[in-house]
């Protein structure tokens, strides 16, 4: 167990959304990542740069599954060995995230009534994205490695944080991050790697993941304490800049290390690192000779 500090960018974005949620529209994100199972001879001759160790952002946001889809990885049969990444899910102190019932009701009344939490993977077998992924899988030229949809608010680039993306099968894996933000236009920055199973020993790396919904609760607590101290005549700009930085009142209770259990180590082969100016409700294709991705960003409208 070890205490962690929360990156400033995450504190700023969660506070901005808590204070003015309607300034940051909520979007549905659809993402499919797939490998090409048949490579033409010309692409096989192309030389690609040797990849260094992947350096993750320190403000990664976590995608989480709906409760009934969660799988207890402890129950996976013995004999599996860990891959090259250690995931640390940052847990916030429950004493700081407890909000009384009246304030909770007031906050909920100002929130858009989403069918899911922010960054929660959508469980809808009939969604256009799942149908798209199914069509790809039926073609012999493609194999879907990741498919997911979720809701999230979009901020300007200065306070936007990337999302951790990872999945693997018995032969290939993908891992990396996706940054989405909105200035005058919508933008995506996909940095993702295709890997293959190997018997070679790979070095371990630790990745910190943050839950945006927990950060929103923390921001609400922050606002409550600022109001309290102002009522006492104290000049406190941010509660987090004062008491959250002390050892006794760290906003992060602990972090749990848990190895991703997969069948073998995976070695990085190829990388996509591409920025794209997006159009709403349009599938954007990100191409590479060995794998690719499809991204769609659609503003969510309250029914």
Q: What is the gist of this entry?
A:
The chain has 7 helices and 11 strands.
What does this structure look like?
By secondary structure, this protein is α+β, with helices and mostly antiparallel strands. It has one domain. Helices cover 21% and strands 35% of the residues. It is built from 7 helices and 11 strands. It has a 4-stranded antiparallel β-sheet, covered by helices on one side. Strands 4-5-6-9 form a 4-stranded antiparallel β-sheet, with no helix packed on it. Strand 5 and strand 6 form a beta hairpin. Helix 1 crosses helix 6. The longest helix has 20 residues. The chain is globular, with a radius of gyration of 21 Å. The N and C termini lie far apart (44 Å). About 18% of the residues have low confidence. InterPro entries: CsiV.
